[in-house]
User: Fold this.
Amino acid sequence: MDIAQSKRKENIAEYILYLWQLEDLLRALQFSPEAIYSQLVAPREVDEEQKHIYLLWYMDIVNLLRKEGKEETGHLEHTLHLIADMHNLHLQLMHHPIGEHYRKTFAALMPQLPRLRQMVQKEEISDTEIAFRALYATMLYRIKGGDKGGEAIKDTIELISPVVGELAAMYGKVERGEVDLFKDM
Assistant:
């Protein structure tokens, strides 16, 4: 909860990836309140009232996953909507003067999008969601300690991370009112 809140304020991309990881962790714990408490809540050095708040927050996510029918796979609609918002920003940056640097960064990734789309096996998702799925897959691969595919991981980090990072930074600036996308139009 506290990590998610700080990530949401600081970096929307990290927030989305954190929630995706949390979804998988809750699934691994089989949505068991006891397992969630012992693994995620009890180790925290906070008072019992705060621990109860943490447990309720995790259980809210469990309930959302169940409500959305995503007990086994998939991501919460909340994060998918955020990615859609980021994709809308991506489209704006591709056409407005303020997106000049972003367009150059994205241009390096464009030739790899068909390969990534094929790997994801979902034609209907946006380029932004493809980038997130590739980053998340890379993150999971690193967590599992895979020693093969080092070049693919390197490609993902070198090509996708700058695009998502710049898009997330711009998203934060737009959200805080620090940037006007339509200036100089």
